[in-house]
Amino acid sequence: MPETTTKPRTKVKPQTERPKLYKVILINDDFTPREFVVTVLKGEFKLSEDQAHRIMITAHRRGACVVAVFTRDVAETKATRATDAGKAKGYPLLFTTEPEE
Ligand code: NFA
């Protein structure tokens, strides 16, 4: 009977893990001027005038709107910078972050 030998095998974890993504969410308020919101969206999130305007209007009508998704660090940095841009002008403009499902 031929002997069967088994080679030791090392289980390698597949390199397919992606970082969890976080949404940056624009919150509506009654005070921040529309055009200022558009300017911040263009500057911080590199959106076109058209994209920025759509997101601003969606937040204005529905209360909030997802701006974009990023890794956690990038999402938090951008949300903070965009919120601070409003704060610097005395506006209550707010961007939050939330993990994607
Ligand atoms: N609701 C604000 C206004 O009417 C505009 C706005 C939109 C503010 C989206 C914040 C977020 N001036």
UniProtKB/TrEMBL annotation:
Similarity section: Belongs to the ClpS family.
Claim: Glycosyltransferase is one of the keywords in the record: no
Function recorded in the entry: Involved in the modulation of the specificity of the ClpAP-mediated ATP-dependent protein degradation.
Family matches, as HAMAP family: ClpS
Keyword field: Hydrolase, Protease
Source taxon at top rank: Bacteria
Tagged with keyword Membrane: no
Gene Ontology biological-process entries: protein catabolic process; proteolysis
Subunit structure as annotated in this protein's UniProt entry: Binds to the N-terminal domain of the chaperone ClpA.
GO molecular function: peptidase activity
Protein name as annotated: ATP-dependent Clp protease adapter protein ClpS
One Pfam match: ClpS
SUPFAM superfamilies xref list: ClpS-like
